[in-house]
Amino acid sequence: MSDEQQRLAFTIDLAQRAGELGMRFFRELDKLTIESKGHQDLVSNGDREVELFVRAAIAERYPQDGIVGEEHAPVSGSSGYRWIIDPIDGTANFVRGIPAWAVVIACVHDGSTVVGVVHEPCSGETFSARLGGGAFVNGRPIRVTSATSLTQGSVGVGCSNRSVAGHVLPLIEMLLGAGGLFFRNASGALMLAYVGAGRLLGYAEEHMNAWDCLAAMLIIEEAGGIVEQPDTQRMIEHGMRVLAGGPGVYDAIRDMALDAFSR
């Protein structure tokens, strides 16, 4: 088994164990401590504890690797590998008892994402990919949609406090005008994973942080989809626009998004 195959197996196991810890908090929401980091941007002690759990496991297994997470300070490494963590993507859902949130872990080597895992504890689904190794959900191969028209499904549309409302609304209008539909479940990583599984036609968001998207972007590419190629270092440091879709609809999604985001 190659090093990256071992890293994928480790990541899947770790994401699932972290999901079990997250579920303990999810089952006792009345005991959560919840804080606001900004408009519609929440964090709980559950987020922080799950990230600490993931960080500790990585540090024990791969002590020379770097770590970047949403809730705690980055750790430098010397191996060329960096782990990008979102302990609970979809915290707004998590703290309100909505079963649509995920543990997200990516591993980046020399600017390329080599392992990506999105684990949804409430459904028991684990989306995973290794660079050059295909994409899977619970071990079963997945493929992006073969649709050639936006009328054949829904497009995930992301929106956060980093997005301009005046840019999101025109995109939704254009999707509806083209006979399509938009979908949002407040977890960007899950929506991107659904693109990889062919459940959504594609996805567009004006700005995402690396921990929300790098893992699922690899899943989409390994499932035969197209993603706008990011500058990984810039993505990790500042976040960037994310566009993705099946080959037959990506161009239409990209053109609408670029038009809307430029207004």
Q: Could you characterize the architecture of this molecule?
A:
- By secondary structure, the protein is α+β, with helices and mostly antiparallel strands.
- It is built from 8 helices and 14 strands.
- The strands form 3 sheets. A 7-stranded mixed β-sheet has the order 3-4-5-6-7-8-9, sandwiched between helices.
- Helix 1 packs antiparallel against helix 2, helix 4 (165-177) packs antiparallel against helix 8 (250-261) and helix 5 (188-196) runs parallel beside helix 6.
- The model has no long low-confidence stretch (mean pLDDT 92).
Give me the secondary-structure topology.
Layout: H1 3-26, E1 34-38, E2 41-44, H2 45-61, E3 66-69, E4 81-89, H3 91-94, E5 102-109, E6 112-120, E7 125-130, E8 135-137, E9 140-141, E10 154-157, H4 165-177, E11 181-183, H5 188-196, E12 202-208, H6 210-222, E13 226-227, H7 232-238, E14 240-245, H8 250-261
Parallel strand pairs: 3-4, 10-11, 10-12
Antiparallel strand pairs: 1-2, 4-5, 5-6, 6-7, 7-8, 8-9, 12-14, 13-14
